[in-house]
Amino acid sequence: MLVFVSDLHFVDGTAGEHNVPTAAFEIFLEDISWAANRLIDDGRKLEEIKIVFLGDIFDLLRTEKWFSFPEAERPWGTSEKKIEAHAKTILDAISRKNNDTFNLLGGTLKTRYDFPLEPERIYVPGNHDRLCNKYVSLRKKVCKNLGISPSGAPFDHNFEDVSYGVFARHGHEYDKFNYEGGTSYGHNDYMRVPIGDPITTELVARLPWKVMQQPAVKNLPQAEQQALRRNLEEIENVRPYSAILEWLLYQVKKNLPVKEAIEDSVDETIKEFNKLKFVKKWYKHHDKWTDFRDEADQIQAVLFLLEKFK
Asked: Is 291's pLDDT higher than 70?
């Protein structure tokens, strides 16, 4: 029996409360147990149960904690030891924030949920948990949280099982903004930093934080501040991405007393993003004069519109 689950995006809560409640996983496991036992009742032979966590389980990018570190110590920086230490701290915070859920997922499931046999848990990293596969210290913590026997080796970047006729990836390999590697799909390909990393941290997570620092916003009643923050923290969930500009305009109209505060925050956030050394280097590498619609042009066009938001 094979079960896939992905994109849980467990976070530390600093950039919004986006965690799936423990009760949802209790229902999830009860359903798997029921299905497994139903197969046996129907006379089917059940030799194994595999639960595959198919990427973006831990979100080490959607957090405000990176803001207090210099760029060299952020996920796209050059100070590897510092990056590892900070990532480890963030993963610990994610574990504490979701302690009940990880006690559940990482524990013995057979007796608790009446499984016919203990499910095997398998982890395939995505783009938001890229750092979880880069450092041994983080890999050990992932194994503990999910109930996986640690080997010390990097996690596989795909799941393949010929007996099921299944080959699975997280999928960011097909997204030019979230995969910077080549078509060999080796471990080093996946460790190359995509532009999606700073976009998530420096735009998606920073904008709400930046707005909430504005004096005009701080003078709002507490309930209004919380409502504004909650709305802004959903920016990453806006689909399609082309609707983000319209969505931000709606937030301004709904919060006219702090219109200038939001506009100034958008402007400052875009300018700070474009000043990042990594972003400048990425633009230079991806901006092709022979293609006026390359990935660098696409991002720059959107950011240009946002920068002129006011």
From this structure: no
